[in-house]
Write a structure and sequence with these properties.
By secondary structure, the chain is α/β, with parallel strands linked by helices. It has three domains: about 5-90, Four Helix Bundle (Hemerythrin (Met), subunit A), CATH 1.20.120.140; about 100-280, Rossmann fold (3-Layer(aba) Sandwich), CATH 3.40.50; about 310-435, Signal recognition particle, SRP54 subunit, M-domain (434 Repressor (Amino-terminal Domain)), CATH 1.10.260.30. The protein contains 20 helices and eight strands. Strands 3-2-4-1-5-6-7-8 form an eight-stranded mixed beta sheet, with helices on both faces. Helix 6 links the parallel strand 2 and strand 3 (about 155-160). It starts with a helix and ends with a helix. The structure holds guanosine-5'-triphosphate (GTP) and magnesium ion. Guanosine-5'-triphosphate (GTP) binds near residues 106, 114 and 139.
Length: about 450
């Protein structure tokens, strides 16, 4: 889904991360990559320029918080600005204690009927008693289509094929379900002789039914044109929220989402396929996190900030010069501890979340505990110069810590690995490595 946007964003981030320093040149290149990607995804040019300008200004002017590298900081700026581009948080809120009525609006073929069935299914699963009203009197076979699609949802369907007035059907449907349902979804016609007629009918349906929410269904393949379409509908009947469909394989999906958000209406859901379960609740932050391949980056950033990790720069400098002691290792373990459990951190890191099972993570935390007790059994000299640990010292340390000689050897080999890596790596990779070293 949204492959070009995702690939473009990830390539831009990769290039930034791969650059030596985050200087003005690197930021400008990053911003240019970003601009190109947004425009290719059909994000409106003016909006693309606005967002990239903000990213650039913030990236050049803001100071990274303590413990966060410049690169990570720029990535987090990108993340925030992209999420802002895609609108605010907050989805469709429905209450089971009363009956809510939802009217589905949208042009022909946008996916209203399919999405009606998907919503019926989703809310049915959430314990709502759902009634669906077939108020499309234009499309031949509209009622049959709705019945077929909704069959899997278990929702009750109201239709009246003798009635040609869709406004009457909508109102009668709502009335029929009163007292027995707590969610009524009214599917309306998209096909009309002309757009004015369609908008007029929308107005009448909304006027007669007085829905709690009107949902506009927009085909995501039309890209930034979503904006004008949404405005036209909004003028006919205030739009409570938007569902953008067909984002599976929509090259212009990024533009569609940004345009929908620009109308000020919330994007409630996105539809990513023809099957009944291809509907997802939309959250800009989660969505951008996924695009960037970062798990839930926001949660991670918050955790980093909360944990108040101070990276001791002097220590880092000394370590980078190749002088690494066991105390440094211990210090890093303690820093890791401040993140809370390692598991919690890894759950938020791309590639790790959901992949490492909790047994493996528990094992990693166990290792850290073992290493810590071993280090505590070392003398000051051994800690400062671990290379001085010969086999008799190794035996003594093992005995003193109650750990096996194998454990001590493992720690020493970790130490050497890390020392070798410190020598060859730059600050950022090292910090990352230090943070992750308990894992394996
Ligand atoms: N790939 C894909 N196809 C979709 C999605 N949503 C709907 N469709 C397809 O789009 C077509 C039109 O969907 P409908 O639900 O009939 O659209 P509609 O708005 O009710 O159309 P009218 O009633 O004629 O106005 C159908 O072939 C659907 O299967 C989606 O998220 N992804
Ligand atoms: Mg339809």
């Amino acid at each position: 889904m949204l492959d070009s946007l995702r690939d473009g964003l990830q390539a831009a981030v990769k290039r930034l991360v791969g650059s030596n320093t985050v200087d003005e040149k690197a930021v400008k290149e990053f911003v240019k990559d970003l601009q190109r990607t947004l425009i290719q995804s059909d994000v409106n040019v003016r909006m693309a320029l606005e967002v990239t300008e903000r990213v650039q200004t913030r990236a050049l002017e803001e100071k990274a918080p303590a413990g966060v590298t410049r690169k990570d900081h720029v990535v987090s700026i990108l993340y925030e600005e992209m999420a802002r581009l895609l609108g605010g948080e907050g989805g469709l809120r429905l209450d089971k204690d009363r009956m809510s009525t939802v009217v589905m609006l949208g042009v022909q073929g946008s996916g209203k009927t399919t999405t009606t069935a998907k919503l019926a299914r989703l809310y049915g699963k959430r314990g709502f008693k759902v009634g669906v009203v077939a108020a499309d009197t234009f499309r031949p076979g509209a009622v049959a289509q709705l019945r077929t699609l909704s069959a899997a949802s278990g929702a009750e369907i109201y239709s009246d094929e003798g009635e040609k007035n869709s406004v009457k059907i909508a109102a009668a449907g709502k009335k029929r379900f009163e007292g027995t349902k707590n969610l009524v979804i009214i599917d309306t016609a998209g096909r009309h002789k002309e757009e004015k007629g369609l908008l007029q009918e929308m107005k009448e349906v909304v006027g007669a039914v007085k829905p709690d929410v009107t949902i506009l269904v927009i085909d995501g393949t039309i890209g930034q044109q979503c904006y004008n379409q949404a405005l036209a509908f909004h003028q006919a009947a205030p739009v409570g929220g938007i569902i953008v469909t067909k984002l599976d394989g929509a090259a212009k999906g990024g533009g569609a989402l940004a345009a929908a958000a620009a109308t000020g209406a919330k994007v409630f859901f996105i539809a990513t396929g023809e099957r009944i379960d291809d509907l997802e609740e939309f959250s800009p932050t989660r969505f951008v996190g996924r695009l960037l391949g970062m798990g839930d980056l926001k949660a991670l950033m918050e955790m980093v900030n909360q944990s108040d990790v101070e990276v001791d720069e002097k220590r880092v400098q000394r370590m980078m010069s190749g002088k690494l002691t066991m105390d440094d290792l211990m210090y890093q373990f303690d820093q890791m501890g401040k993140f809370g459990s390692l598991k919690k951190v890894l759950d938020h890191i791309p590639g790790f979340s959901g992949q490492l099972d909790s047994k493996e993570l528990d094992k990693a935390e166990d290792r850290v505990r073992v290493y810590r007790s071993i280090i505590q059994s070392m003398t000051g000299r051994e800690k400062a110069d671990p290379e001085s640990i010969n086999s008799s010292r190794l035996k003594r340390i093992a005995r003193g810590s109650g750990r096996s000689e194998k454990d001590v050897r493992e720690l020493l080999s970790r130490y050497r690995q890390m020392k070798a890596m410190v020598k060859t790596s730059k600050g950022r990779e090292m910090r990352q490595m230090l943070r992750r070293m308990g894992d394996s």
